[in-house]
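Morning!

As promised:
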Amino acid sequence: MKPIQLLRARRRSGRWHWTDIAAYAYLGLGVVLMFGPVVWLVLSSFKTQASLLEFPPSLLPLSQQEVRVQGFPQPLPLFAATLDNGERRELAQVRRIGLIAQMIDPADPKQQYRVPTAKLAPVRHLSFVTANYTEPLQKFAFTRYLWNSVFVTTIATLITLLINSMAAYALSIYEFRGKTVAMLMVIGTLMIPITIILVPVYLVVTKLGLVNSLWAVILPGAATPTGVFLLRQYMLTLPRDLIEAARMDKASEWQIYWRIVMPLAAPALAVLAIFSIMWRWNEFLWPLAVLTKSESFTLQIGLNAFQGELQTQWNYLLAMTVVSLIPVALVFVFLQRFIATGIANTGMK
Amino acid sequence: MAGLTLKGVRKAYGTIAVIHGVDLAIADGEFIVFVGPSGCGKSTLLRIIAGLEEVTDGEIAIDGLDVTRVPASDRGLAMVFQSYALYPHMSVYKNMAFALENMGLARSEIDARVRRAAAMLRLTEYVERKPKALSGGQRQRVAIGRAIVRDPKIFLLDEPLSNLDAELRVATRKELAALHAEIGGTMIYVTHDQVEAMTMADRIVVLRGGRIEQVGTPLDLYNRPDNLFVAGFIGSPRMNLLPVQVVSPGLVRLSEASEPIKVTTGSLAAGASATLGVRPEHIALAAEGADLALTIDLVEQLGGDTYFYGSAPGLPQITVRQNGQALRGRGEALPVRFEPAHLHLFDAEGAAVRPGR
């Protein structure tokens, strides 16, 4: 179905039923609720710090127009002024003293006006402040943070997929004494929140000399009980005949795992990959604990650095938040066909 | 190609025994069919031979070598599964080549073997397809092809035709028989369908409740069933089994009123109860000297044959088969005579009574 058809879909073609209207209204509300904050974030990331703090806030990134006037080194802000005789003109503001502003006509700089500030309205136009993006990327080590985040996310996800699938393979395909106990223990660790194990794991990481290394972020979370459980449940649904057929075909256990079970578990692996990427990319508390030097910061920790004690550089913070959203959004775009089927199959939400 | 010997094979899951001591010798190149009702242990026995199930007790030898503790992958056997168990993510070619790659053969050798098997099974056009894009019959052939390419010591087939429709089943049955004639390997075939067993087997192994009831050629089993179970299981429609009493050595009768029937009674004493077995085609219509007068309940006209289902007081329903098209209707009387040369007698335990026993 083409997108345009999708947007015009109705219960009965050609006629509007009240349920059509209700459905569109409901879906429209959903779009606004889900997508509105993201749109606002993206638009706000192009605003100046001043217009971010402005009240009432504007949706679009508007900024005051400025003009260069002969005889003035700085560009002057432009206002729409209502003069005493009721005439409306666009004037540049030279200076402001109390409630009275001294204005000049940009076309005729000799002509000066004194206008009460209440009669001035700023002339604004749409402008995207791309410096919000370029400056932090140049001034701060943001590309470094980005690279660190990409590295952590990719390597951690690969390790997670590999070792979780191996554990799941053993727990689903083999029969051995204590299998249920092992599984229950894996599930049991789900009940332990990270805050409880933060200090012990930190001590281990310190003893291993991994503090400030990216491996300190990658390794502790590589084996996830959720991942093992998810993959095990999926592997249990694979027909046993296939594994037995592979065994009859002289395949080694490693070949059965790598060439039969892994390709067939692809939907579950995709789901776990998506979740792992999201977890790792958005991880905050643990990296904050083990990464103290700015060259090993991940993006989320780097973003935190904009939030000072006295002042927050909202324009940079928002712009870099958008940057940090892009990879996850791309992952969703490319893997989304797996998400629906995979999640439906694995029963994970 | 190899022979197989089972000695006292037992299998139990916990305390539940499913195979109670099976002894069997299979010669090189034989087509053996395991047949029996569901739950008789035939598939379990096949999986034990394959090495997919461990035996609780007993010994398995291939070509005289003890393989009881050898894992499935090292026994050199190939298996065709009921579900076919084709690898869904691999093409037909890859499915067939997988085992050969695992055996470490050269690419050219793998290619030659796969192409040869594909040609033999008329799969050449489909080798690049995934199993999903094949029909049931084609999938079945791929499963067989996967077994053939390996040139295994023994082929194991676990109800390979049960997922096909009736017409295709008959066609594939013939193909399998032809294939066996062509490549001549030892084949062990599991089915619950006695027609498949009769048509394909060199020898049939009839199983019930984890025990072998009888082993023999199809006609052996048909003509000389060892016991009531085999008599009832082999042959379609099944043998008529009628309760009788021994009158005197060589004579039995169906009831007090009926005429005595001549049959070998062996060592059975007079007055002993027994079961008389007679196949539908061994009951003749008799104008006079009838053993029994039946009333027709139902007539089935198959064109070439006619089946009468008749009843007589105090007896189970009796099936009579007549060649050709016999024009008799429901409710008519049908005087019949049993052919004395084809009668079977079973004692109270169900064992066949044979002359001199």
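Chain B has a mean pLDDT of 90.

Hope this helps with the figure draft.
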